[in-house]
Design a protein that fits this description.
68% of the residues lie in helices and 3% in strands. The protein contains nine helices and four strands; from the N terminus they run H-H-E-E-H-H-H-H-E-E-H-H-H. Helix 1 packs across helix 2, helix 2 packs antiparallel against helix 3 and helix 4 packs antiparallel against helix 5.
Length: 267
């Protein structure tokens, strides 16, 4: 087997080769959605169409970018799961459900319509329902992958306990705060306590005048990247990783409390 480092490849190239070899499907999908984010960024510069006062292609830009990061993350982490048949099924589900999400979000942006919580017509309501079913399927399937990681006893010898538990808890927190999105779907808005709209932070558009349930949703779901990195580089011991993970969870729960009480993250 060729040693990529000894072959003289730069570090970033070695990383990409390894990432591709771990999960070719999610690697390609990650780049495809990254390209989608780039295209949406260009479209946002060439259109004046707005949805609720925001350029209509900002939202699909954010979703393309976040799904790209998700795809690359899962491509890297899921190689450690012994049940690779389950990983292959999950990878296909991720691609299918996220394509459904992105097509609807981008299509609605092109129409100048909101994609989430839109019940203004039967067609818009049907699209939102399809999105809800799609994301529910994906979240439940991710929960099954998380469960498999908790059940698995054998990992490569070089993996520290902090890294293993970083992956487990990162997945668990991701699933928990993915389900928080269901709360927003149930009440048909993300601002608290009132309806959506009004001033927001640049690009993110988190409300600066009221609470916003997207804030804990964002920080909680990105535990998927944060905790494995912390476990790998800084907290290789299980106990220290647990302390960090619990501290992080309390921080995100504080953000959730802040949101439901109607306080903006940054006024």
């Amino acid at each position: 087997m060729t040693n990529l480092t000894e072959a003289g490849l730069p570090t970033w190239k070695v990383f990409l080769v390894k990432l591709q070899s771990r999960n070719p499907l999610l690697y390609r999908f990650g780049w495809l959605t990254f390209a989608g984010a780039f295209i949406c960024a260009l479209l946002s510069l060439s259109t004046t169409t707005e949805v609720m006062g925001i350029n209509s292609f900002i939202k699909p830009f954010k979703f393309f970018l976040s799904i790209s990061i998700l795809s690359f993350t899962q491509a890297w982490l899921l190689v450690y799961l012994e049940d690779q048949a389950a990983v292959k099924r999950y990878s296909k589900i991720l691609v299918i459900t996220m394509v459904i999400e992105l097509v609807i979000i981008t299509g609605q942006a092109a129409r100048g319509r909101i994609s989430h919580f839109n019940q203004s017509s039967y067609f818009d309501g049907a699209l939102f329902t399809i999105m809800g079913i799609s994301i529910l399927v994906f979240t439940l399937w991710t929960a099954s992958i998380c469960w498999r990681f908790f059940r698995q006893k054998q990992f490569p010898l070089w993996m520290s306990e902090g890294y293993i538990w970083g992956i487990r808890l990162g997945l668990l927190f991701f699933v928990i705060f993915a389900f928080e999105g269901g709360q927003m779907a149930a009440i048909l808005h993300h601002s608290m306590p009132g309806p959506d709209g009004g001033p927001g932070l640049p690009v993110l558009n988190w409300s600066t005048s009221s609470g916003d349930l997207r804030v804990p949703h964002f920080f909680g779901m990105h535990s998927l990247q944060l905790l494995p990195v912390l476990g790998y580089y800084f907290f290789p011991r299980k106990t220290s990783l647990f302390i960090i993970a619990i501290t992080w969870l309390l921080f995100v729960l504080l953000l959730y409390w802040q949101a439901i009480k109607g306080f903006p993250l940054i006024p």
